[in-house]
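Hi C.,

You asked whether I'd gotten around to modeling the 108-residue construct. I have! Everything is below, sequence then structure, no commentary in between.
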Amino acid sequence: MQSFLGSLNYYSRFIEDFAIYASVLYELREADFYEIVRKAKSTGDGEDVVAEEYGRWTEARTAFAILKNKIVAAPILLHFDVDRQPVVVYASKWAISAALMQEHNGVY
C-alpha cells in the first residue's frame, strides 16, 4: 500500500480529489493491517473484527480503483510529442519561470 501511495504522491497534483481517495488508503497502511490482525487474535473471535473492518476494506478497494482510473485518465499527463511546437511560459526582468507545454486537443 505504501509503495502505491508513494508512487502516486508525485502525481497527486494532477489528480482531482486525490486527498479524499488517498485518505482512505492511508488509513489501511501496513501498520493498520497488523493492528486489525492483533485485534482479531486478542478477541478470540476474528469473525467479528473482520466483519467490522469489511466496510473499510470495501471503501479502500473502491478508492484504489478510482485512483488507478484517475491516474490513467489525467488529461495533463501526456507524453512529449517532438512533432508539436513547445510553449515556454513567462520571463521578466525580476523573475524567470518556465513551463514546457504543448497543445493537445485545444488544451495546454
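If it helps when you're writing up: Residues 2-75 form one domain.

Thanks,
B.
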